[in-house]
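Thread: Newbie trying to understand structure tokens

Hi all, I'm a second-year student working on a class project, and my supervisor (Dr. K.) asked me to get a predicted structure for one chain before our next meeting. I've only ever worked with sequences, so writing a 3D structure as a token string is new to me. If someone could post the tokens and maybe explain what I'm looking at, I'd be very grateful. Here's the chain:
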Amino acid sequence: MPYYLKIKKLDIETGQSNIVLLNVEEAMRYGIKAGDKVRISWQNQSIIAEANTSQTRVRAGQIGLYKDIWKNIKISPNTIAEIEFLERAQSIQAIKKRLLGKKLNYKDFYQIFSDIAKGVLTRTETTYFVASSFIRDYSDEELYFMTKAMAETGEMLKFPNKIVVDKHSVGGLAGNRTTMVAIPILASLGLVIPKNSSRAITSPAGTADTMEVLAPVSFSAKEIQAIVKKTGGCLVWGGGLNLAPADDKILQVSYPLSMEPYDKMLVSIMAKKVASGITHLVIDMPVGETTKIPNMRIAKELERKFKYIARKFNIKIKVIMIQTEDPIGMGVGPALEARDVLRVLQQKDNYPADLANKSIHLAGELLELAGKAKKGHGATMAWKALESGAAWKKMQEIIKAQGGKYDIDPNDIVLGAHKKYYNADKSGCITFTDNKAINTVARILGAPKDQLAGVYLNKEYNDHVKKGERLFTLYARTKERIKLADKALEKLSIFKIGK
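---
Reply by user tm_fold:
Sure, no problem. This is what the structure looks like when written as tokens:
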């Protein structure tokens, strides 16, 4: 039975999705307890929210909307809203089922992802679902159901082309901004590649974070289709779309712990490929002691699962597992990584060769997978597109189409105003690079939220260094951030120097 209350705007942000505040006596009168779900409807709009209660902040006859809600929704104070109590979501039962170790079916997953996307499940309830992924691995059938449900609870992009390609890295390796080099190479050679990426989860920058240094990344599906029609490619943030909408809310609860279950990562990647209409896909999977994928045993099992899901959706796939001990590129953090990308695309004298070489390799594999190049000739074709300037010209088209400054030079990239150099305390050879330490320090400096923060690696794995020679440089917006990173580096070692 609905009832009616006046809306009061609360000038406070909770940092969480939809929470509303009821007067405690009002809530008791209608049988609502803290944590219950209610639907608030007004002027042909409605939201689902979690109820909280207070004795003083709202009076009887009022419902308080926190700033998280009203800053994104047009609503006037004192608007009369209809309030309706909602029964416990069915998806809660599905999550309980999973926590008890039972298998879920397609309907279960669809209900969970639909409720997450609509805000029916709270952040806490969503966290329980993510945590359930650590209890046991999902079966192959469950992975298929999850991928299908996650894709189908959102919008599905359609492109008229028979072949629509994509390249995706599972992350976990510092730098490694190969996507931003490979996409313009592939688009310049006539392939259609509508690249949408998530923001960083376990690293100091994702592709979307880095591209945002050069151009806006938030677009509607219609806008993306127009950009791709014009340029053949794009580099956008998937969270700005309604593609697999539950995924970004799940990522938000994964971010604080810097942890993402492997099965969840796999489904997140594949659901967005399915929703984007991808037909050919190359997965870059860095493997190393301090990366997201620590060993080849885990990598090979993930490869098997990727291939299984791809087969279910008729996607041609190649998973490239590369054992690595070193970051790709020299910069770690959005602005520093964007500068590396520009240096490669513009073929500057000081461009990071490892970033160029890996990007060419991945682009070449995708050219061959899509039938654009003969086996063994893809990398040569990709290199020519980069060396000739065709890839940079294409990137300029993409930046311009996305509303960025397309004539930008690497030296135009602004970095943190405060920096600190770290030098070698002895002479020798760099025998080990700790990706986790680099990522931790970069995040302490403020990345990825602060685009200007990060770590620049002046040396790399296997380099010989002399005592006093510069190893790496920290960049931050404030001196305080430099001090915090400095303190962390008393216990963390980015490089190990041997004889």
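A couple of things are worth pointing out once you decode it. The mean pLDDT is 91. The longest strand covers residues 45-54. Feel free to ask follow-ups in this thread.
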